[in-house]
Design brief:
single chain; about 500 residues; Uridine Diphospho-n-acetylenolpyruvylglucosamine Reductase, domain 2; Uridine Diphospho-n-acetylenolpyruvylglucosamine Reductase, domain 3; Vanillyl-alcohol Oxidase, Chain A, domain 3; 3 domains; 6-stranded antiparallel beta sheet; globular; FAD binding
Length: about 500
Amino acid sequence: MATKFLLTLAICRLIVTVGFRFYPTELLRLGLNGNLSVEVADLETASVDFGGLHRAEPMAVLNPATAEDIARLVKAAYDSAHGFTVSARGHGHSINGQAMTTNGVVIQMSGGSNSKQKLLTKVSEKFMYADVWGGELWIDVLTSTLEYGLAPKSWTDYLYLSVGGTLSNAGISGQAFNHGPQINNVHELDVVTGKGELLTCSEKENSELFHAALGGLGQFGIITRARIALEQAPQRVRWIRVLYSNFSTFTEDQEYLISLQGKPASQKFDYVEGFVIVDEGLINNWRSSFFSPSNPVKISSLKSEGGVLYCLEITKNYHLSNADIVDQEIETLLKKLKYIPASVFTTDLPYVDFLDRVHKAELKLRSKGLWEVPHPWLNLFVPKSRIADFDKGVFKGILGNKTSGPILIYPMNKNKWDERSSVVTPEEEVFYLVGFLRSALTNGDETQTLDYLSNQNYEILKFCEDAKIKIKQYLPHYTTQREWRDHFGDKYWTRFQQRKLELTQDIF
């Protein structure tokens, strides 16, 4: 019987094969159409990720020309007498080394010398979908679909991520309350399984694999193609920010706005997010192009609880043909909210510019040498019933009055999430995404060092455990079976084990 092979890719690596060394030249016999590289530069790129918390030592990097290249490589690993690990890497935006491997092969899904030979994005105007290579970046998908006046329905805040990477997690942003996460907007997938089979799956064909792979953290295969649902793309966006000093008022307004998800487009916003402001410099520096430098926001001039403010971000999409009614629709919606008077900040921009807004911030940080630094991010799903306790214990407690990056907080409707997928969310109808998107710096400030922020993440998780706040980690990373079992819970753990056994012939 072939040696069991645990495919390690995307977001989590449960078991790592160690203690041997294979020779990449042996893989040349596979007849790959792509490029199998052992060049120092390629290995170096594949040895790090956005998190910057770990390093790996891959033996080779495959730039596949086709999905069949990936299938051949994975089958070779599965059939190998020794076994070796394979890791799929998109844009390398993983945090805890999940897109890397040591003494194995990294499949470079995005870019590479053979990228033009891969599946090109194909758009169906009639059926409103796009067939996309799993390593394609969402920014490139958007560019292709806009040629037809169309765009995907659901997004992440950052578009320089691969399609396969976000679909292996969930893919969320401020549109999720309305359209659900990205995994809810997929019609079909091509997946290379852990046995090296290239299978097409959908609701009707190989449905168990389809739902397992969506949000499956790479544990059920490598997504090589996705059929993405599209909608008519708006032309422009009215982007609005309002401020709150009272947390309960802030959350009540957010929850009211997402409750409108079933209403006609004229009676709801298209995007609802929020973030926490614990440091006066943050609101004026992060995505600072939003605010006018001549009119900076001053926390000290506002009455805030415990030195914390909350910012609600909302948008209204529109076409130039209906621009004359947008102001009235926005005014009607804003009248229902209880934000701080005179704290409304508004800008108007093309739809593409709004979707790509974080990339502009990236370019600014890169110019200052502040992008390629460690990112000890922590993303949590917090049940609505405990979000006020989380505010008191974390935002007003553990964080103090300083942070080194955005802290997102916004609610989602559970009924927009398909529970057949592998994603685990809290057992409440409304839950919050809280994202600590921080950067570790060596600028002499102890509160911005990697050790300090990592310890603070531990404090946050420990607080939730002690307070019995039943959080679920988004982009989870665990190292023991017990931790994974706690993450899934009894109901979903049994399903996960069964799927692993049936689809990958691996128990854990």
